[in-house]
Amino acid sequence: MLTAALEYLAHGVPLFPVHGVKGGRCLCGRKGCENAGKHPIGSLVPHGFKDATTDEELASKVATQRPEDVRAGLQQLRTSGSVTPAPSLALTDAGTAMRERIEADTDRYFFGAWPDAVGTQAAWMVDRLTAVNAGLA
To answer: Which pLDDT does position 52 carry in this prediction?
Structure first.
């Protein structure tokens, strides 16, 4: 599974983990979940698709998902027209546009002006921003 995740990353496809589906029911644990297999695992990506990443560390976490969960998530991307049909793996124009929107939102959130209170309430951001700044240097 990690090999597949790393291949997606090599093609520039950001990843985020989604809850799986078994017997037509979502594995998130919520009774009557109306988004079976279509919503992120909040413990790994608390901001949902906005936390999609090409980071290999997260990919290793994604790779611990069951293969059927990953296939369901990929199928959703294909159904939405974001990724090309099987067996190839590439972003479509719609997928590229979605990726660009996600990146623009990320840039706006991480590089826009924030009130001072945000930094004091979110120490985790300091680590991420430090890593980003180091990568840009």
So the answer is: 80
Which residue is associated with the tokens 């826009």?
112
What are 81-90's pLDDT values in tens digits?
Answer: 888 876 667 8
Query: CA-CA distance, 38 to 66, in Å (whole number)?
Result: 15
Question: For residue 38, which phi and psi values (nearest 5 degrees)?
Answer: -120, 5
The helix (run of H) or strand (run of E) holding residue 32 is: none
Domain span including residue 86: 2-136
The burial class, CB within 10 Å (0-12 / 13-18 / 19+), for 72 is: buried
**How far is Cα 86 from Cα 45, in angstroms, rounded to an integer?**
26
Give the chain's domain count.
1
